[in-house]
Design a protein that fits this description.
Keywords: Signal. This is Transglycosylase SLT domain-containing protein. It is built from nine helices and two strands. It is mainly alpha-helical. Helix 4 packs across helix 8 and helix 7 crosses helix 8. About 18% of the residues have low confidence.
Amino acid sequence: MNRKFKKLVVFLSTLIVLFPLLIAGCATTPPKDISNLCEIFYEKDDWYDAAADARDKWGVPIHVPMAMMYQESSFRHDALPPRDYVFFGLIPWGRVSSAYGYSQAKTPTWSDYMRETNNSGADRDDFEDAIDFMGWFIYKSQKVNGISKWDAYAQYLNYHEGWGGYKRRSYDRKPWLKKVASKVKARSLRYATQLKTCEEDLQKGWFMKLFS
């Protein structure tokens, strides 16, 4: 009995030491090469399936929301907006907005998404939910403001300013934002070109990939 007890103690002690390491190993990390859409999907093999599902559901080309997500969070699941400061910029006081996660969706807009799609369990730090949210938003931008789902420039302006802000052309007072939207457009075009070279391979099931 004493020997068995000692073995149990050793096992539990080992488990306690290794548990934090196991948790860290399971933590979500951004792709290593976020400049190449093929490399992103090869590394995160379930991301392509999620992006393709959003494409099929909302009619949104994969490269557009992926380019927007790059700009918003650099594919960090727990991305947060900058801190706000008070007292002459000396004391941190919360965040500048409620944006969070891969898509940097704000809490009210995320709530609208969950209600309209009946996806009450959606999480902003889950890639599948985040890419579906962005597909929904791009779809709505086309419905509300007549913006092509392929127009990454105007879609990003809608995403940043909201549908009402875009209608009021609030972005005209923000030349820096137009520059960012141009970067999103350029990245979306690069992503589209890259995806053409690897999508056929990405569409293969795991069984077929064993023989490719």
